[in-house]
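User: Can you help me understand a structure? I only have the sequence.
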Amino acid sequence: MKRFLILMLALSILFVAAACTDKNNNNVNVAVNDIAQKILDELELDEHMMEMPDEMSLDAYPFDRDLVSEYVIYQAIFSTSADEFAIFKVKNQSDIETIKDAIESRIDQVSKVWETYMPGQYEKVKNKLVITNGNYVFVSVLEDQDKVEDIFKSFME
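Assistant: Let's start by predicting it. Here is the structure, written out as tokens:
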């Protein structure tokens, strides 16, 4: 029993150490529009999505735009799809949590709409993807999240 406890403690320490390792590349400097265009191209979404206008984005993602150096938000053209993704490049990493809070606010907002309107789209919203890397925060509500994640991460290397 004592050996088992020591083994479990050692494994716990190993997992904590691995989780605390910084895998983010803080030296990345890529335009958010380049990432967005690659996602649109690779998933063949050009005809299906449009860039969200600035005035609408302020309601959708409520945070001070002075916190980011650039951002882009795409949403589905048709009201029968929950497809949406956004990429934010923050000026200071200390503001990442503010951006993530705005993302959660947006996800809560659209979840309420899709939950009763189109349950299939609601499942897509529930399976959202949120990634931070360096000064970038990315959220995706798209069909092929694995491919989207691979595309985003390819720009972060």
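Now, to help you interpret it: Strands lie at 49-51, 68-76, 84-90, 129-133, 136-141. Helices lie at 2-20, 32-42, 54-60, 96-117, 119-126, 145-155. Let me know which part you'd like to focus on.
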